[in-house]
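MODEL INPUT / OUTPUT PAIR
PAIR INDEX: 1
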Amino acid sequence: SMEPLLEKVFPSREAFLKVLAELEVPPRAPLETDIILRYSAMDQITIQAETFSSDQISRESIFKGNVQGKIPRENILFTTAKLRMLIGEFNSYERLIGEGGIRVEQWDREVRGDYLNYTRVFDNNSQDMQNPPPVDEILKLEGSVQISAAQGKARSSTLFLDLLNQEAVLEGKSAKGSERVRIEAYPDRLSKGAEGQTTTDPSTSPAREIVVQAARASLENKKRRIILEGAVEMQRMPEDFFLSSGILQLLYDEEQMLTEANARQSVCIEQPGRVARADLARVDELKQTIRLEGNAEVDSGQYNLQGSQINLFLDVNRGVAQGDGNAPIQMTMKMGGEFTPAFRCR
């Protein structure tokens, strides 16, 4: 029984080892003692399960039945049906492999998937180093990954988290339709907090929503940017702003509010009453402008514009355009009738 060790704080490693040796069935080998030491520390992983088995030769342990784990350093809780734990020689790494019913919680976020692989690598060459800091810490989930938080939600086929560098990569099965990564963000919840939604009257102030789809999404929190690649589509509601491109970079501020969007490779923008396309496009949220560069074209009910560079207001009703001095805009005026765009984005 491990009862003498539960819910207790020991002043030193030696005190812990003394009580450990006095157990009714003490650890039978140094490996078992090392495993208990590593997972008893508050800054290390803890695991609970209905059954536990260990192979000292392969340095592998298997947990089954209502497996629950905790990674205090990252404030991560996880559950799974089955978990394998592998310890590298000289404790050079730890690896957890979960199968079935994966659920991971961190702060206000929850992630679900079919498979989990957590790896933590240490820069130590002997067992004498106590609790060495990790030099690499990776969490990977696969199979119908679902992510949810107060600020939004996402789905992907694979989620790769670099916990030390605060970076994440989401990948879809392909660049086709619903097999792409899908991210939904709710800016109002970011600016007001989740509770702020209860005071918003949707009939007078529709909630804002940004939906992005792509084959791959890279989130770099330290750089405050998201890079999307492969059949990228972004839609903003309620203004019904749609953008498609090959690559899209989103920049955000300290409060995680979108400040800028930079798109390239066959960029196409569609708004009520206006369509635009170019090789490159920059949407400035602070200035509320759109800058088109390279084979730029804008079509509306009143005019068709073409040039190497065209600047527009984000608001279609303020559709003032400006070209550069080297290549003026070519304008074709339209006479009456309903708006029939010269091209479409979707």
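PAIR INDEX: 2
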Amino acid sequence: MSPPDPAGDCYPPRPDDGTADRFGHLFNLIGDAVVEIELVETTPVVRAVNPAFEEVFGYSETQVLGESLNEYIIPDHHETEADTFDERTAAGRQNHAIVRRETATGVREFLYRGVPYEGADGRRFGFAIYSDITEQRTYERHIQVIHRILRHNLRNELSVILSAAQLLEAESDREQIEQRAAQISHHAHELASLGKEAQTLERVLTEDRALEPVDAVSMCTEAAEHLRERLDGTVTVDGAESLQVEAIPELSTAIEALIENGIVHNDDDPTVRVSARYEPKRAVIEIADDGPGIPASERRPVFERGDITQLQHGTGLGLWLARCTVEICDGQLEYERTENGWTVVRMVLRPG
């Protein structure tokens, strides 16, 4: 792809001092997506894009050249924000903001810088520079969640342990001593389990690994067998004999965490049904249980992208481990409460 021609319609004339060549190299080689627009009345019309724009946004130069940039990259409900940026560009003012923009593969987050300039003939132009910060922002949000849940659950578990220990010191009845000791042991194991989940989640978020084909049915079967040995409840695995998906190894831990949630949060002889199947262009793992469902205060931040500042904590890190793992695998985590009272958590993944 050739860079914008400084002597062409899109730029005012410039002296032939090598500046054009240096600008062309910068335009073509910079890793950030750059688009040059002309404001035609109030519409930002694309005049040139660099190779990084084509790669990041997934639109070729021939697709967008001469078209309204906003028609391609502005998500629904963000039109007012885009109009404000265009007005500032028209007034010769720079823009700088974190924004959400539509790409050919979905909405992503960017650091946006807008640099306006005016041609010799008075026409108004601008450069929009987009740095993709989606992974960074996702990581920051997930770390916030981990810290909030760890603080909350550590405080709760330690409070119970300390209280039981104090009562234990004052007890003389052997039966009461055994009950207090069992209580301390139980909550100490809860803390140990929380620590292991946190370690796994940290590994998911910080280690950069390529996705590999794995058999999700084998993972489901192994998780079910492991939990049958540790917990009271019925766990069945049905569906395809094999389900090849693109994933990281921690998918097995995430599956086990979801099955465990279905057992431990149901006090009435819990049953968990795990199923795996292929659907058009996707692979699906479902974990269904006959328990009371996930409270809305815990469900919304995980499944509906709710405000994590309103997060309440009762299920540990299991749901967040599942969500983060599925997102790393380019998949999606879904929730459903069926009419017959079953809770379904669905992992939607790429077939391997």
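PAIR 2 NOTE: The radius of gyration is 27 Å.
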